[in-house]
Design brief:
The chain is an alpha/beta fold. Helices cover about 20% and strands about 25% of the residues. It has helices at about 10-15, 30-35, 75-85, 115-125, 170-175, 180-190; strands at about 5, 55-60, 60-65, 90-95, 130-135, 140-145, 145-150, 190-195, 200-205, 210, 230-235, 240-250, 250-260, 270-275. The strands form three sheets. A seven-stranded mixed sheet has the order 2-3-4-5-10-6-11. The chain is globular.
């Protein structure tokens, strides 16, 4: 069975942010009229007004939608474990989240976008997540295969006080204006190792693959960060909308990304094969 999915920054932005069918007061009427999401994770200890994460399967793939506006990584770990326990035999485990903990945009990839990096990286490793699809930075970027470094790192709880629910960046933005605080923040977020740098088709690779979508509508674009990070394999900002097509078969995951206006690929195809 083959699954072909079309994902964009707009899609990644909308899916995790309004997901609870048990929290109608926090969602727009328009969302409720169109979506009745499966398996909403209402057990979150610190839910946000945006709703909850959820999960579903499609063929042999398990999709787990993380509401990363909730900065409590323990909630996301519990959701992931619940989803895997419910579907332990799926071949592919794919997380979708708004914030890009491994992105390359100027606006977020070295500030609020990585507030959860030190906590989510080991969670994804421990639960054998294959792919993480991200948004937030309105630029296109894909990583090498990444793993955590196995060390303890700060969680920066002081930047995640109650009421700051992901979309508000005032605390971290203020902190990053202090050179000493920024230096500590950036050093702690060097919490990864590059597990595999091969390109094209990878067979049984180690690590997790992360991809950030650009804008699908052209309504908002951000610049790329001037210095490309070492974990980034490819990135692009042509100031035109893009979309990605995902093909999942029994043994392979492939993602291709295209320019909406021309229909031409903006990057080479990336595939993971698992025997």
């Amino acid at each position: 069975m083959q699954y072909a999915g079309y994902l964009s920054a707009k899609a990644l932005r909308s899916l995790p942010e309004a997901t609870s069918i048990g929290n109608h007061d926090s969602m727009t009427t328009g969302y409720q009229n169109h979506f009745n999401v499966p398996n909403p994770f209402t057990e979150e200890a610190t839910p946000t007004t945006a709703g909850h994460g959820y999960f579903y399967t499609y063929g042999n793939a398990l999709f787990i939608m993380i509401n990363a506006n909730n900065y409590n990584a323990a909630d996301h770990e519990a959701l992931i474990k619940k989803a895997i326990k419910a579907h332990p035999d799926t071949k592919w485990r794919i997380v979708v989240m708004h914030q890009d903990i491994y992105g390359s945009g100027k606006d977020h990839s070295d500030s609020d976008g990585i507030l959860l990096r030190t906590q989510l990286t080991p969670i994804y490793d421990a639960n054998k997540i294959d792919v993480v699809l991200q948004g937030h930075d309105h630029t296109y970027a894909r990583t090498y295969q990444l793993s955590g470094d196995g060390k303890q790192h700060a969680d920066f709880a002081e930047y995640k006080i109650a009421g700051q629910q992901g979309q508000y960046h005032n605390l971290i933005d203020a902190a990053m204006k202090d050179n000493d605080k920024k230096s500590v923040y950036e050093s702690q977020n060097l919490c990864y190792t590059i597990a595999d740098m091969k390109q094209g088709t990878l067979r049984n690779p180690k690590g997790v693959f992360y991809m950030s979508s650009n804008s699908a509508t052209g309504s908002k674009f951000y610049e790329l960060i001037p210095q490309q990070q070492d974990y980034i394999a490819a990135r692009n900002q042509d100031w035109r909308p893009t979309y990605s097509v995902i093909h999942i078969t029994k043994n392979s995951f492939t993602i291709d990304t295209y320019d909406v206006e021309t229909g031409k690929p903006i990057d080479e195809s990336y595939s993971i094969v698992k025997d």
